[in-house]
From TrEMBL:
The lineage of its organism: Eukaryota, Sar, Alveolata, Apicomplexa, Conoidasida. It comes from the Eukaryota. Gene3D superfamilies: EF-hand (1.10.238.10). This is EF-hand domain-containing protein.
Length: 226
């Protein structure tokens, strides 16, 4: 009986967690307007139209932190620029909503897991040096734009820090941390999580807004005053 109660309790919790990730009908309508996505038109499901870069995607939802920037940077390039090459189809509205809901409402662990899968080329279960360099590039740009890293965009210091060779060295150091003896040039999933949460500044920027209304509905734009 006790085992049955535990299973039932686990199921209830799972259902509650799943509901947290769902968008309401009103929110879905707002998303179609904000992203120019159309769930159905003339009896046909329509893909996301056009393309967005990372900054434009973040701007739609008023998000600004390291994890959001990394996600948006990779999401926009992978899904909008490379989706047709990878799968032969463009991303559909349903898939867009599924991924976006997990990103904005999932736990920090769920969001980082999603981020890992976006950088895991071919779903092999690990990221390689080039993937890590891309992550570092996005992180560094995010820190610069948010003021976390006090560099002048035009300074020699910025140019040195942003140089590909420096980022390569950081990627090598990340890999060396876990594979100093076996000489593997990669990070497995659990290693990736351990590495990224200890990156300076990342732990402080894991709090992606979980209340969809804080970024989906802009009171000023809607003409609402407190």
């Amino acid at each position: 009986m006790l085992g049955g109660q535990r299973r039932e309790g686990g199921l209830v919790r799972a259902v509650k967690e799943a509901k947290k990730l769902r968008f309401s009908s009103a929110e879905l309508r707002q998303l179609t307007e904000e992203t120019h996505c159309f769930r159905a038109q003339a009896g046909e499901r329509r893909p996301v139209e056009g393309g967005l870069n990372a900054v434009q995607l973040l701007g739609l939802f008023k998000l600004s932190n390291a994890v959001s920037y990394l996600f948006a940077d990779r999401f926009s390039r992978l899904f909008w620029l490379h989706r047709t090459q990878d799968r032969g189809v463009e991303i559909g509205f349903e898939e867009f909503v599924k991924v976006l809901s997990l990103w904005t409402r999932g736990t920090p662990h769920q969001r980082l897991t999603l981020l890992f899968h976006l950088y895991d080329r071919g779903n092999k279960g690990y990221v390689v040096k080039d993937d890590i360099v891309e992550i570092m590039q996005s992180l560094f740009l995010c820190f610069l734009k948010s003021g976390v890293v006090p560099f002048d965009w035009n300074s020699e210091e910025f140019k040195a820090k942003a140089a590909y060779g420096i980022l390569e060295a950081w990627a090598d150091a990340a890999i060396q941390q876990f594979h100093g003896e076996d000489n593997q040039k990669l990070l497995w999933y659990n290693e990736f999580l351990q590495w990224i949460v200890h990156m300076p500044g990342v732990a402080e920027t894991l709090c992606v807004p979980t209340d969809v209304r804080t970024w989906l509905y802009n009171e000023d734009r809607l003409g609402i005053r407190a």
